[in-house]
Amino acid sequence: MAAVAATGALTAVFVSGGGKGSADASTERDQFVRIEKVQPNVVNPRPGRRASTGTFTVDCGTNGNGKFSPDNPVAQPGITNGAEHVHDFVGNLAITAKSSDADLAASGTTCTNGDRSSYFWPVVRIDRTVRSRAETQQALASTTPAVTCPDVRDRLPAVPVRARPAVDSRLAQIDRAYADANTRMATGKGRVDADFNESVLTVLRTQRAQLIRGISDSIAAAGGGRTTGLLSLVECDTNYDGMHASMRHTAADVKAKQVATQQVRCPAVRDRLPGVPSQALDEVNRGLAELDRQISDANESLVVTRGNAVLGPLNARRTAVLDRISTAIGRNAARPQGLEKLAPCTVTGQPTASAGSTSALPDPQGPNLELPNNTGGIVRPASVLIQYRGNAARKVVPMPRFLRELTGDAKPTSRGPANARATWTCSGFTDRLSDKYPICPRGQQVQRVQDFPGCWDGTNIDSTNHRDHVAFADTTTGACKKGFVAIPQLRITLSYKIPQDVQVAGQYALDSFPEEDHNPFSDHNDFINVNGTRQMQRIAACINKNKTCR
């Protein structure tokens, strides 16, 4: 397992805890480096006597289906358009920010071995207009930061009648905590201060964790069963959406034909239900799961067919399920009125605002799927190498199904650089990784080498911050820390054929959040394991037998 030493000064300048100065994370010539000037820094721990040294390679293509989306289902579950930049997706065809585990398991896939996992990363673009810091600073000066949080109401199961008052009370407290956090965030207008942001998010995170746990307990105590997946709704994020308003997005982009991957948009149902009688809980929950599945099927069809013929059948199926839900409740309580009005869905590009956001976010526009300041033509990877690797100290155990992992940090400016990772290199130079965009020798490809954590806590598939349930192995020994076990360690290597004149001129860059302004140190990658149990056992066995498998 590779470990990376420091590669030089951080490419973003952060505001101190005192809030003086200004953030600076622009993509300019000083953020590019000739790869020959980067010293070798990749350290591979020497395999021990009990090491697992095999590799298992998965071929999921290079996003030939064109599944592009500004959703981030791992770091921002439930928040449509939450990434504010476009991701390449390979593997799972149905996944959106709102997909359930059951939806993922039933999806089609681009992977040749049937792996339904989802692998996704920010796109790279070529933009021959070199950006300047001035534009970002001007946009930031008039921006009031905010927080973005997943919506809890629309992720709940059927709420029993006895639990309804307690659940509603805690949902109201969640709303107040969100409003209070935004009031505090507003004092940071015009600057990016990672320490200040974390102080606000820490308080909000603690409040949400307690309240969401209370909601889960109330539902369980009233006979509704133990809820799942609510843990992922605890974490909120910083939000500088307002910067989009004054950043570059040309009229030609807006008027061009929209070709972003479309999604089905349907009215929320869960937050429109009353307290559900105990006799109807199972049937209502089955109906809610069926509604989710219908949307997921329709979204997968849109990826494959690029059409909107899904709406007629979808709306008819939703009408039938909503009627069954109303009937089930009505047998033992007042029949809900107006649920049938929630049946009609639409097909659009990405919605225009993130849930919990305080400002509207435009859809990706035009043939290049652009968001403001994320401009230029998307460069498809020439190759995508997905490998599961071993551990230098131990045999690996299979990953649990639906494990979430992420690597790197999309927001090292607004959250701090602790989780950011150097990923950039060139083919032929993989003994060194840089936190700057590389300029490669003629004939070599630009590469991003993204290693995921290879240690797991043995229990959880997610955590409140989407990180604590997994960990990176020790960079010297390869060992996992106490309480963690080694799992197949995922490495994704993305290779790009970028003209050398574009590299030298500093004209290629990542899509990013607005405050990052294409900071190369904001590179990141996300993964949800949807391998079946037998397949993951096969992967672990190959690695433990020190074989090379596909």
UniProtKB/TrEMBL annotation:
What organism is listed for this UniProt entry?
Winogradskya humida
**DUF1996 domain span:** 386-529
Q: Where is this region: Disordered?
A: 348-367
Q: Which PANTHER family match?
A: DOMAIN PROTEIN, PUTATIVE (AFU_ORTHOLOGUE AFUA_6G11970)-RELATED (PTHR43662:SF3), PTHR43662
Question: What is the designated name of this protein?
Answer: DUF1996 domain-containing protein
Q: Which residues form a coiled coil?
A: none
| Database matches in InterPro entries | DUF1996 (IPR018535)
What the entry lists under Pfam families is as follows: DUF1996
Q: Where is the composition biased (Polar residues)?
A: 348-360
